[in-house]
Amino acid sequence: MRLILPLALAALTAAPALATEGVLDVVAPFEIKGADPSTSGNVFIKMELAETLVNADADGRLVPGLATDWQASEDGLSWLFRLRQGVLFHDGTPLTAEAVAGALTHARAKPGLLDTAPITAIAAEGADLRITLSEPFAPLPAFLSEYRALIYAPAAYDAAGTATQVIGTGRYRLTALQKPLRLEAARFDDYWGAAARIDRVTYQAVGRAETRALLAESGDADYVFNLDPASVRRLSDGDAVEVLSVPVPRSLLIKVNAGHPALSDPRARRALSLAIDRQGLAQAILRYPSGADQLFPPSVPDWHVAGLEPLAHDPEAARAILAELGWSPGPDGILTRDGERFSLVLTTYPDRPELPLSAAVIQQMMAGIGVELTINSTNSSEIPAGHMDGSLDLALLARNFALVPDPIGTILTDYAQDGDWGAMGWGNDAFAALIRDLAAGQGGQPQRDAAMAILQAELPVIPVAWYQQTAAVSRGVTGAVIDPFERTIGLSRMEWADQ
């Protein structure tokens, strides 16, 4: 008989009762902040309530969505998207080029990837859509696959352009929304493609990882997304659920304020990197061998550079570098220079349970080279806020490079002057030129390799570990998947195992 620890028992007691006969229940940590794609589109796309013009398969290749095909003009300054015909929104109105242009115009007016693209006009052109640019921009179709570019019916938006209802074209239509925690949906019988196989579905936002795991184990949820490493091991040892796991383009990394006096020299950032035992941390906290010796994992082959000198663990070399930079141990072992202690604040957030644990391990590793870290575990919003006001020293975060299938989209925003999740107080003209060329569709693998080599040499962010995404699926369900790009959970392919 397995003993349930008090914490787990409390989590189980507080867990919502979800299981309903004939209804597929999905649980994940993401709250539903509102109807607008800019706030909760990641939930709505996973639950197949709404769709984008362009989709992506499990390998990141772009495939048709509400657009059947697309083509750039010879000069690269406009793109024509041919729209799928015979598509209905959930309110019964047809998908038209005017409706698509309106939805994308609303999306572009809000913070997100689309507002960073050099778009000058979005307009209907007969039954198709024309997007005009101020300069060539090769990743545009990939940007249109992002969840904030979901296409809603005109009736979904208020006068200010904010969506107040979820009226999409997906296989499921919303029947109830109880933000921030729950939604209910039913199969949309007028869907343009193959119908969903399960009639009704629910989504529940559950923040605590232990609670999510217990809901899977007890049978109160059919698909539980984003498990903590301890729960993965426990659930894998049992027979209650099937545990799915796949590498994803997400990296655990340390964002560095390169404008900080102690961190402005690339050698200082190299010393911090050398202090980190990546494989030891990954095995202890994430519980799989995923130490990151460069920014992108091998599962992103176009951006993972074979032959790049790997980031290493060498505390002795780290101490030697810091000594060269004028730092010497004080009475308590913490380095000092010109009367200043090498003391930094590492900001992180508990939304992902592995982050505070990893921060504590990194704190000990840095102490080993004489660097004092104070951990500030707070809301994730404090990281971009600290970036903007210049108060951030270091931040430990999990960066998703799969917001669009081509990571150039995330790189463009992270390493722009106002990109608040990537580099801070750092710039490199050669890197910026390489990224601009890649965004314009000029260059290829040599340019990607050169850009990654610059990041590896100067370390404006310090990679720590690569991620695997996990989910627990009821034995009563077949067809579930984990999408490396986190767009779908395979809802439309799922069916009850006894059917």
Automatic annotation (TrEMBL):
Keywords: Signal
Pfam families membership: SBP_bac_5
SUPFAM superfamilies: Periplasmic binding protein-like II
GO cellular component, one term: ATP-binding cassette (ABC) transporter complex
InterPro entries, per the entry: Peptide/Ni-bd, SBP_5, SBP_5_dom
Gene3D superfamilies the UniProt entry points to: Dipeptide-binding Protein, Domain 3, Periplasmic binding protein-like II
One GO-annotated biological process of the protein: peptide transport
Coiled coil residues, start to end: none
Signal peptide location: 1-19
MF (Gene Ontology): peptide transmembrane transporter activity
Annotated ranges, domain Solute-binding protein family: 62-410
Subcellular location: Periplasm
Sequence similarity: Belongs to the bacterial solute-binding protein 5 family.
This protein's name: ABC transporter substrate-binding protein
Organism: Paracoccus liaowanqingii
Taxonomic placement: Bacteria, Pseudomonadati, Pseudomonadota, Alphaproteobacteria, Rhodobacterales
